[in-house]
Write a structure and sequence with these properties.
The complex is a heterodimer of chains A (414) and B (531). Chain A is α/β, with parallel strands linked by helices and 414 residues long. Chain A has 10 helices and 20 strands. Chain B has 3 domains: 142 residues, DNA ligase, ATP-dependent, N-terminal domain (DNA ligase i, domain 1); 197 residues, D-amino Acid Aminotransferase, Chain A, domain 1 (2-Layer Sandwich), CATH 3.30.470.30; 125 residues, Nucleic acid-binding proteins (OB fold (Dihydrolipoamide Acetyltransferase, E2P)), CATH 2.40.50. In chain B, the strands form 5 sheets. In chain B, strands 14, 15, 16, 17, 18, 19 and 22 form a 7-stranded antiparallel β-sheet that branches. In chain B, strands 4, 5, 6, 7, 8 and 9 form a 6-stranded mixed β-sheet that branches. A 5-stranded mixed β-sheet of chain B has the order 2-13-11-3-10, with helices on one face. Classes of the chains: A alpha/beta (414), B alpha+beta (531). The interface between A and B is large, with 63 and 82 residues.
Chain lengths: 414, 531
C-alpha cells in the first residue's frame, strides 16, 4: 500500500490529496496545524486551518488565501479525507488526521495532553500511523500540575509586589503568554504587556477567548505609576532597552526548559517556571498509546533517542527530519531576530504583522535526508562504522588544553 | 535538609553576590555546628568519602524509575549533571522528611563496609523521602562537585559576617588540608590558633591580565618585573622539620615532587615560599608538556624524575623564621628572598626567579617580546611597595602576557557542553587544509559569546552530516580564528602538533572555507615558535 503521507524536502506531503502539512517552503495547498512561525510559514498559495487558528495566522502572515474548518468535521481533498482535532498546544491548534482508502495517519503538530484552561483540550485520535513531535522526549521531562506552578508564580509576584519590585515574566507571545494570563491569580493587577503579547491578546479576545485585563506598555504610559506590576513580554525583550524601564525588577522565564538547571542558569533570569505547551514524557507515552498506532514517526525534538525507546517498546518507529522546532526545541533560542519583537513594539501593536518567533525559514538549509529510516538500524551503523570520537587523538589533546584545572581540582596556574 | 535546600535554592536563584552572601551568612548563623561544618566543606570542594559508585547510582535510579539504563545515559549529557539527571528521572517521593544535612552525611558514611544490598536499600529509601531539590543535593553529596557559584571569597565573607571575625582571618582558617571528618566547626572556625596546623598555606595572591598599556601603571620605577613562567603555581612550606607543597587549587602535591624534600637541608624551619614549579633542563625551563606527566602522577617513577626534573622558581617569601611577612613591601620581601636563596647549590631544586632589569616601559616591552625565546609567556609586574594580598585583587600585581598566536581553522565536529552549557553545542574540533583534505588539529571550547554559541547551535542542528555518539560531524562551512599560547610537536596527534590553551578568538564570517590556513602554515609556526 502506498504511504498516506511522505516526507519531502518541502515538508510532509499527501500524494492522494496533493497537499502539504506545515510545509517549510512555498506550496500550492498547505494544511496548517497552528500559527507558530515554524509551522505556519508565509508564501503558500492556499491555506487550510481550524477556524480558531486563522485569525492569528492572518495577523502574522498578512493577506493570505485561507479557509477555516471546524474541529472534527471531515473534508475531502482529492482522494484523501482530512479532519482537524484539538492538539492542546495553543488556541486553535490541531492535529491533522488524513485517511486514504481506510488507512489513517495523524500528524500531531505540537501538542500537550494536560488541559490548560485556555485552549481546546487535546483529543487522542485513533490511527494506524502517528507522526509525533518529541520536543521533550526524555524521561527527565515531567511537568508538575498547572495549579502548583501557578502557585509558584503567584507567590513570586506577591513577594515582588510587596517590595514594589516589578515581576518581569518572559513567555512566547502567542500561546504561552495567554496561558499564563489565565493560569495566574485573577486578583493580580495591574498586568502590563509588551506589544507583541498585547497584539496576540487582542486577536484572541476578539475570537472570544477570555483573558484578564492587560495594559499595553506604550511610550505614553508612566510605568512608575504602577510599581510592583506583573509585566509579560517575549523572551527577546528581556535585557533589552524596553525592559530597562522597569526598575527594580525580578525576571523570570516560563518554559519547559526551565526544568534543567543548566538552562535556567544560562538564561540568567532570577527565576524559571516550568510551563510548557508541549507534552512531557508521560504525556507523549500516553498520547502515542491512545492512538493505537503501530507506526510512529518522531519529528522534532530528541528524535533518535525517542524513536529508539519506541522501537524497544515494540513500535515500528522512525525518525523524520523536519524543520519544525525553533519555538521551543532549539532551547528557547535567541534564534529569533533579537530585536524584531522589540522593533514591532515600537511600531505599536497596530502593526499588521507581529515579529516572527523563529529564524527566517529562507535562511535555513534544506534537510539532507527526506526518507524515514529505522532508527535502531541507523544507530548500529553509526557505532559500527565510525569511531566513538571523530579523532581519538584529539581526545588526548583536550587533556592537555584543559590543564588549567589539572587532575581533580588540579594544581592551578596563576 | 530543608534549610540546606532552601539555602541552595536562594543561592541558585540569584546572580547577585550580595544576595548569595546574605543567604549563606543567615544559614551560618542559624544552622547546627555539624551542618555549618559540612556546608563549608561541601562548598569548598570536599565531600564525604564515596559510599556507592556512580554506576550503581545510575543502575538503581533507572530501576526505580522504570526506564532502561541506556535511556538514562542518553539523558545525562543533555541535562549535563548526573546528580540532577537522577533527581529528575526518579518518580516523586512517596513521603516527606526534614532531617538535617549532617544526618544524610552520617547515613552515607555509615554505608562503608555495608553489604551492597543494604547500600542500595538505604539510597532508594532516601530518594523516597526527599523532594526534587533535596534529592538533587543528596545525589551531589555522593557524586561531589557543588558548583553553585559560591566562591571561596564569598564563603569567607559570609562566615566573617556570621562570626564577626575579619575576612583574612577566616580565609586563613579555611586554607589547608582539613577534612570535615577530623575537625569540628569549633576547632576550624572558632578557635584562635590557625597556625596549629603546620601544613596550612597562605591564600595565594593572584594577578589580573594587564588590559591597558603599562604606561597606565605610572612610573616604571615603581614596578618590579619578572618573567611569567609557564609552569604551575606552588607554595612551599617548611615548618616543624617537615615540608609541604601546595598547588594554587589548594591541593597538597608534596608527594608528586620529591625534589623538594632536599630544601630542608638548605633552608631554616619557618620558611614559606611562593613560586612557579617548572621542569628544568639545567639552565632553563622545559616546555610545559614535559611537566604534564609529573602533575598527573602521585608517585613518580625514577625515569620520569630523570627526564623531567623540576625546580621551584621562587618569587616571593611569605614567612621567615615563623613570622608572617605578607604585610611587608614587595621590595623588602624580595631582598630577603634573595638573601635567603643566595648561594644555594644547584641540586637544591630552588632558585629565585630573576628580576628583570629595565629602564622604562619601552625597554620592558622589548624584553617582553623576547619572552617566547626565554620559554616564558610574558612578564609579571609587581608594585615594589605592595603587600602580599590574598585572592585576585586588582592593582598591585599584573600579568602582561604575549599576544597569542592565531590560525584560521574550519569547524568539522561539534559536541554539546555540560552544566551551564548543556544543550548548547560548545565543544568543537577544528581542522586545517592538507591539500584537499581537512586534518583535525585541535579542539576548542571557549571564546564565543552566549549569543554566538546559540547561533552555532541552531546551525549545527541543521547541518549535521553524521553522528558518532554525542559527536556530530558538521558541514565544513565555518571558519574560526583559533588563538593559542604555544605550539609543540606531538607524535600522538594526526596533525603532528599540539596547541597550548587553544580557544576561539573570532568567528570569521568573512572568510570562505577554502581560505582557512593549512597544515603547512601550522608547521611553519612550529618551526618558528615550537619548543
Amino acid at each position: 500500500m502506498k504511504p498516506v503521507l511522505t516526507f519531502t524536502e518541502r515538508g510532509i506531503y499527501c500524494p492522494a490529496g496533493d497537499f502539504f502539512i506545515d510545509p517549510w517552503r512555498p506550496v500550492d495547498r498547505a494544511l496548517i496545524t497552528h500559527g507558530h512561525a515554524d509551522h505556519a510559514r508565509p508564501g503558500h498559495a492556499r491555506y487550510l486551518a481550524t477556524k480558531a487558528a486563522l485569525p492569528v495566522m492572518r495577523h502574522r502572515l498578512g493577506a493570505i488565501t485561507a479557509e477555516g474548518v471546524d474541529y472534527g468535521t471531515r473534508h475531502r481533498i482529492g482522494d484523501a479525507e482530512v479532519s482537524f482535532h484539538p492538539a492542546g498546544h495553543l488556541p486553535g491548534s490541531a492535529q491533522i488526521r488524513v485517511s486514504v482508502g481506510g488507512e489513517v495517519w495523524v500528524v500531531s503538530g505540537d501538542y500537550k495532553t494536560a488541559p490548560d484552561g485556555l485552549c481546546e483540550a487535546f483529543e487522542p485520535v485513533p490511527c494506524h500511523a502517528f507522526i509525533t513531535e518529541c520536543t521533550f522526549g526524555l524521561p527527565v521531562f515531567t511537568w508538575a500540575d498547572q495549579a502548583s506552578v501557578a502557585k509558584e508564580i503567584n507567590a513570586w509576584w506577591a513577594a515582588n509586589a510587596a517590595q514594589g519590585t516589578y515581576s518581569l515574566l518572559a513567555a512566547y507571545s502567542l500561546g504561552k503568554a495567554q496561558r499564563l494570563l489565565r493560569m495566574i491569580d485573577p486578583e493580580i493587577a495591574p498586568i502590563l504587556t509588551h506589544g507583541a503579547v498585547e497584539a496576540t491578546n487582542a486577536v484572541l479576545r476578539a475570537q472570544g477567548y477570555a483573558l484578564p485585563d492587560t495594559t499595553h506598555v506604550t511610550a505614553g504610559l508612566d510605568v512608575k505609576s504602577c510599581p510592583g506590576a506583573l509585566v509579560i513580554a517575549p523572551p527577546s525583550a528581556l535585557g533589552s532597552a524596553w525592559a530597562r524601564r522597569f526598575k527594580p525588577a525580578s525576571s523570570a522565564f516560563a518554559s519547559g526548559w526551565m526544568r534543567l538547571r543548566g538552562v535556567r542558569r544560562r538564561r540568567a533570569a532570577d527565576r524559571g517556571f516550568v510551563v510548557s505547551d508541549h507534552a512531557d514524557w508521560p504525556g507523549l507515552q500516553a498520547a502515542i498509546r491512545e492512538t493505537g498506532a503501530e507506526r510512529v514517526f518522531a519529528t522534532h525534538g530528541y528524535t533518535e533517542i525517542f524513536a529508539r525507546w519506541l522501537h524497544a517498546e515494540g513500535y515500528d518507529a522512525a525518525v523524520v527530519p523536519t524543520q519544525f522546532g525553533g519555538e521551543e526545541e532549539d532551547d528557547m533560542p535567541v534564534v529569533e531576530p533579537a530585536d524584531a519583537e522589540q522593533a514591532a513594539t515600537e511600531q505599536a501593536a497596530t502593526a499588521h504583522k507581529a515579529a516572527p518567533e523563529t529564524s527566517d525559514p529562507a535562511t535555513s538549509a534544506a534537510p539532507d535526508a527526506t526518507v524515514p529510516y529505522p532508527t535502531g538500524q541507523n544507530r548500529e551503523d553509526a557505532t559500527a562504522s565510525a569511531p566513538a570520537d571523530p579523532d581519538p587523538d584529539d581526545a588526548t589533546a583536550s587533556g592537555q588544553t584543559d590543564l588549567d584545572t589539572g587532575p581533580n581540582t588540579g594544581p592551578d596556574r596563576r | 535538609m530543608k534549610d540546606f535546600a532552601a539555602l541552595f535554592t536562594a543561592i541558585d536563584q540569584t546572580t547577585k553576590t550580595t544576595r548569595k552572601t546574605e543567604a549563606l551568612a543567615a544559614f551560618f548563623r542559624d544552622a547546627s555546628d555539624a551542618d555549618r561544618l559540612w556546608t563549608i566543606a561541601l562548598f569548598s570542594g570536599r565531600r564525604p568519602k564515596r559510599a556507592v559508585t556512580t554506576t550503581q547510582l545510575r543502575e538503581w535510579a533507572a530501576e526505580v524509575a522504570g526506564v532502561p539504563l541506556w535511556l538514562l545515559e542518553e539523558s545525562y549529557p543533555i541535562v549535563g549533571d548526573l546528580a540532577e539527571t537522577l533527581a529528575l528521572i526518579l518518580p516523586p517521593a512517596r513521603s516527606e522528611s526534614d532531617k538535617p544535612l549532617s544526618h544524610w552525611i552520617s547515613v552515607l558514611r555509615g554505608l562503608h563496609g555495608a553489604e551492597i544490598t543494604e547500600r542500595k536499600a538505604a539510597i532508594i529509601a532516601a530518594w523516597d523521602e526527599l523532594d526534587a531539590t533535596e534529592r538533587f543535593l543528596f545525589n551531589k553529596l555522593i557524586t561531589g562537585g557543588f558548583r553553585i557559584g559560591v566562591s571561596q571569597k564569598l564563603m569567607t565573607r559570609a562566615l566573617s559576617r556570621a562570626t564577626g571575625q575579619d575576612e583574612p582571618v577566616i580565609a586563613l582558617k579555611l586554607m589547608g588540608g582539613w577534612t570535615p571528618e577530623t575537625t569540628s566547626y569549633k576547632a576550624l572556625i572558632e578557635t584562635d590558633d590557625p597556625a596549629a596546623d603546620a601544613s596550612r598555606p597562605y591564600p595565594f595572591y593572584l594577578a589580573y591580565q594587564l588590559g591597558e598599556p603599562p604606561e597606565s601603571l605610572g612610573p616604571a620605577t615603581d614596578w618590579q618585573a619578572e618573567w611569567k613562567w609557564d609552569g604551575i603555581r606552588g607554595q612551599l612550606i617548611l615548618r616543624d622539620g617537615t615540608h609541604h607543597l601546595w598547588s594554587r587549587g589548594e591541593e597538597l602535591i608534596t608527594e608528586r615532587f620529591p625534589e623538594f624534600s632536599r630544601t630542608r637541608d638548605f633552608l631554616p624551619d619557618g620558611t614559606v615560599l611562593d613560586g612557579e614549579i617548572v621542569t628544568w633542563d639545567g639552565s632553563a625551563p622545559m616546555p610545559f608538556s614535559t611537566l604534564q606527566p609529573r602533575i598527573g602522577r602521585k608517585t613518580v617513577p625514577k625515569k620520569l624524575l630523570r627526564e623531567a626534573p623540576v625546580i621551584l622558581l621562587a618569587y616571593d617569601l611569605l614567612e621567615q623564621d615563623g613570622a608572617d611577612l605578607r604585610a611587608a613591601p614587595m621590595a623588602e620581601r624580595r631582598a630577603r628572598l634573595e638573601a635567603l636563596l643566595d648561594g644555594l647549590p644547584e641540586d637544591a631544586a630552588l632558585q629565585a626567579s630573576p628580576v628583570l632589569s629595565f629602564d622604562g616601559w619601552e625597554s620592558l616591552a622589548a624584553l617582553r617580546s623576547s619572552a617566547r625565546a626565554r620559554r616564558a609567556e610574558g612578564v609579571m609586574l609587581k608594585r615594589r611597595d605592595s603587600p602580599y594580598l590574598s585572592g585576585r585583587k586588582k592593582g598591585d600585581w599584573w600579568k602582561w602576557k604575549l599576544d597569542p598566536l592565531t590560525i584560521d581553522a574550519v569547524m568539522i565536529y561539534a559536541q554539546q557542553g555540560s552544566g551551564r552549557r548543556a544543550n548548547l553545542f560548545t565543544d568543537f574540533t577544528f581542522a586545517v587544509w592538507k591539500g584537499n583534505e581537512l586534518v583535525p588539529f585541535t579542539k576548542a571550547y571557549s571564546g564565543l559569546t552566549d549569543k554566538e554559541f546559540t547561533q552555532i547551535t541552531a546551525w549545527v542542528r541543521k547541518n549535521t552530516l553524521q553522528r558518532f555518539g554525542p559527536v556530530r560531524q558538521v558541514r565544513p562551512e565555518h571558519v574560526f580564528e583559533i588563538a593559542f599560547e604555544g605550539i609543540q610537536p606531538s607524535p600522538r596527534h594526526k596533525s603532528g602538533i599540539s596547541l597550548r590553551f587553544p580557544r576561539m578568538s573570532r568567528w570569521r564570517h568573512d572568510k570562505p572555507v577554502n581560505e582557512a590556513n593549512s597544515l603547512e602554515d601550522l608547521q611553519q609556526m612550529l618551526a618558528a615558535y615550537g619548543s
